[in-house]
Amino acid sequence: MSLRSREHQKSLLNVILEVILISIGVFLALWANNWHEEREHRALAHSTLRNFADELRTNQQAVRNERQYHDTLARRLHEFLISNEPPTEERLQKSVQFKGVRPITFDHTAWDLALATQALSYLKPNLAFDISKIYSAQSDIQTLQNSFLASAFTPATFSSDNIKGLVAAMEFYLLDVNQKEPAILQLYDKVIPEMDQALSISN
Fold it and tell me: Is 195 exposed, middle or buried (0-12, 13-18, 19+ CB in 10 A)?
């Protein structure tokens, strides 16, 4: 074999070796980048789940705090309406023990943050769906409350001597509330343990 042929063969081997080394380097860089991204996604999913668990526990307690009052208030308002006694504000305060409709304010900061960071995509699909279902239910209750308060409690309402119309509106409103609140409490009881389990696994 001539000197030129040996040099050509050596040069070809060097090129192949360089290509192999470059390919390995690119592969390792991509693997390291993917590993880093997956680690960040897992950390984001964990912190998001923790935020959801804390926030939904707070909302769950807020519903529980008003649950008995709303149920009792609806019953007393009905008794107030069917009574033969004059429907006066004084009687409303005494017999019904009316202390306002006490709407619930739901926290949703964790949900807003999860949407902004697209963190829901890093959770298990079934769990993300259940969490989304709870926030939708909370939004439905919040919308119901806001609509009722905006329509029922106006200056014209309180300027009227006859409060029977307001009491009737509150009774109908509480019929919806007393259906939605037990339903959302069931969702809390189902989903919060699922989040706790996912958090313990990720730890």
Answer: buried
What value does the mean pLDDT of the chain take? Answer: 84
Q: Which two tokens stand for residue 29?
A: 């860089």
H helices present in the chain, as ranges: 3-82, 89-91, 109-117, 125-152, 155-159, 164-202
| Contact predicate 102/70, CB 8 Å | yes
| Furthest C-alpha separation in the chain | 122
Please tell me which residue, 203 or 104, carries the higher pLDDT value.
Answer: 104
Reported as type and span, the H/E element at residue 150 is helix 125-152
**Percent over 90 (pLDDT), the chain:** 49
Radius of gyration of the chain (CA): 31
Q: Quickly list DSSP for 105-119.
A: ----HHHHHHHHHTG
Q: What's the average model confidence in pLDDT over 2-25?
A: 67
Distance CA 174, CA 172 (A): 5
CB distance 103 to 143 below 8 Å = no
The residue behind tokens 């389990």 is 197
